[in-house]
Automatic annotation (TrEMBL):
InterPro entries: Thioredoxin-like_sf, Thioredoxin_domain. This is Thioredoxin. Residues 119-163 are annotated as: Disordered. Residues 10-100 form the Thioredoxin domain. Gene3D superfamilies: Glutaredoxin.
Length: 163
């Protein structure tokens, strides 16, 4: 699939994206986040090189709140619908390129099945959280498009209807 920037507007749409046997990489960003511009560029570069990974860049202002995202940038990796890795920040700017390359290489199907055999190994931890936004320092939703079902934990837009 390569990389796409999209809007996931409901819990149902989120589940639909995760319903694939391929790894799913979700990079949560904010337009007001200085670190997100660099992280997004590095992520997109590697996403295009790994078409067997479903890679999405999600703007937090247009996407329902996710309980595992407390700051931006945050990378969540799913395998068969289950969260297998969580990266809050992608490390210092000078190390992001290698950090993201290492993450994508663990899911590199062109190198055979051995790349996926390490999924049970603990994920790499980001080297620095210095570039994260403070939780709650998120800009207000744009045009009321953020949020999903108010009945589900983590989704807080009262204008949304349940999935």
């Amino acid at each position: 699939m390569g990389m796409a920037t999209c809007i996931i507007s409901s819990a149902t749409a989120f589940e639909r994206v995760l319903n694939t046997p391929r790894p799913v990489f979700l990079l949560f960003v904010s337009e007001h986040c200085p670190a997100c511009a660099q992280a997004g560029a590095v992520f997109e570069q590697h996403a295009w090189q790994h078409p067997w990974v479903v890679s999405l860049v999600l703007d937090c202002a247009h996407t329902p709140r996710h309980p595992d995202v407390s700051g931006t940038p945050t990378l969540l990796i799913y395998r068969k619908g289950a969260l297998v890795e969580q990266h809050k920040g992608l490390g210092p700017l000078e190390e992001q390129e290698q950090y993201v390359k290492d993450i994508f290489s663990r899911y590199d199907l062109s190198k055979g099945a051995s790349a996926l055999a390490s999924l049970d190994a603990p994920p790499l931890q980001p080297r620095s959280n210095a570039s994260l936004h403070v939780p709650g320092d998120r800009p207000p939703p744009a045009g009321g498009q953020a949020g999903s079902s108010p009945n589900l934990p983590g989704f807080d837009n009262p204008r949304s209807s349940p999935p």
